[in-house]
Amino acid sequence: MTPDKDRCLGNIYTLAKKKGIKIGDLETSCDVSIGYLARLRQDKKQALPGSEFLFHAAVLLGTTVDKLLNFDYRLAVDTEIYLSTFISRLTQDTVTGKLSWRADTACYPSAFVTDRPVPAPAHPLLALDPVLSQQGKSKEIYLSPFHPAARDLVPKAAWRAALSGDSDVLLVRLMKEQDPAAGAGDPWEELELYLCGSNNNILSALCHTNWQNPGVLDSGLIDLYETVSMMFQQCSLDQYAVSTIDRYMDSRSGQ
Q1: What's the average model confidence in pLDDT over 74-78?
Q2: Is residue 220, in this structure, part of any structural domain at all?
Q3: I want to staple 69 with a disulfide (CB 3.0 to 4.6 A). Which of 3, 26, 92, 133 is the partner?
């Protein structure tokens, strides 16, 4: 989407209203004169607000410059704006190291089918296949609250980070595997975001990317996913590993 001045200014006014920030106070906080935005609306020569103003405005409004330029918050409902601010904060805290992510392998369903009943899975995103259960068999499936009827969803990556002592945020990259014999369409992927009890006793579905009808949250979720996945791709070693390797290398020096 090409940046547009009317959309950008509309986003600023919309977010300021939602957050209870007066435009004059916003302009003062961004080191521009009061009335700057009103004059900008009437100025046909200047296409967009200045980059420094956009940066400071984005911070105050709980968003990013990219979203001010490319989203259309005027079309978003209050919940989407609320979650967009939350997702932006998650991304910022991930970059600055304030939020530490770890792999959540417990949400991967087992591929095995057993011929006997088994206890229900402990993870809130897993369930027993109801069709096989009726046949006296057991198999775990990933059960998404966003697609409650789907039985062929496969998590490809899952990470969680602690928000507080008893609550985690959970980010899942999900794929729907189509059965060619059934004549179904192409497979698709999406990202899902949850709040989850640290002991998996509760689950709250927040949002997901919509491959059929992308919304205002999709870009933020993709940014968060790419930020987290990039950090996992980097090789990081704890102090124990570093000290052990250093001692070994020192013991072999000169040999």
Answers
A1: 84
A2: yes
A3: 3
